[in-house]
Amino acid sequence: xxxxxxxxLNTFLLIAICLALGLTxxxxxxxxxxxxxxxxxxxxxxxxxxxxxxxxxRDYLAGGNALRHSAAMQALDGLATDLTALPSQFADRLxxxxxxxxxxxxxxxLAAGKLAGDPQGLLLQAEREMAGTLxxxxxxxxxxxxxxxxxxxxxxxxxxxQLLRLSHARGKLVSSGQDELAADVEQALQALSKEAARLDSxxxxxITSEQRTGASAFAALLDLGDQQQEQVSEDQGVAPKRELxxxxxxxxxxxxxxxELIRQRSELMASSEQKIAALQRALAELEPVIRAEHGRIxxxxxxxxxxxxxxxx
Length: 313
Prior knowledge:
Elements: H1 2-63, H2 66-83, H3 88-106, H4 121-142, H5 147-150, H6 153-176, H7 182-201, E1 208-212, H8 214-221, E2 231-235, H9 238-312
Antiparallel strand pairs: 1-2
């Protein structure tokens, strides 16, 4: 009877040991999966941030495409949701930087669309129009063999040279963003203005173009050929000279607007990079912490496994 009871007790003990070992193995497998799942979530956050957030923010600043901004906002909302899957001690390290970037993207970055694109478009257009007026003046002087026409050649050549110099100086200023290069632009503009004044002071060559007034045009439309048509004659050199002086006069204001646009854009890009870099640093600083947690969990599991095995033996 006593032997039977002892056998029954040993059987129950063996069953209990087997259950304990099975539960320990099941718990160990679950606990060992935690660090790998944690690392997967961390790597997923890092990759989504780099490709879906940082990439779209930079593309939006470069081109002003509203779809890029929308994609960046959606990616940030997704990161905020994924952050809740991390343990609080890890999520709290990322949340401040993520919230700052989210607020910046929704406010300041959204207003940056008007700053995107080529900021020197107005200056390029003005320079093209100046080149066009110089070409018209060259054609104007070439229409006659008068001695006065030869006086146009030197200032036209110098004006073209100074316009080319102005274009190069403007290009360097815009590409570098260095304000000290604005002095080169101003010097080239002053030299061009001087040549334009020389051209304006030259005598007209009496090459006129007839322009009908509204009354004469109406009469021509009604085929009233017997009526006297009023015509206005203007020398062909008047309009291009006037346009060239006007373009040069407007250029400094357009240059100032372009410089201000470049400054605002540079500040916004620098601010964007700072916000992105802050979150990148937070992610980078989190990696060794997660790896340390990975090692701690492994040591803890092995220790408990060893304790259970020692107890059962």
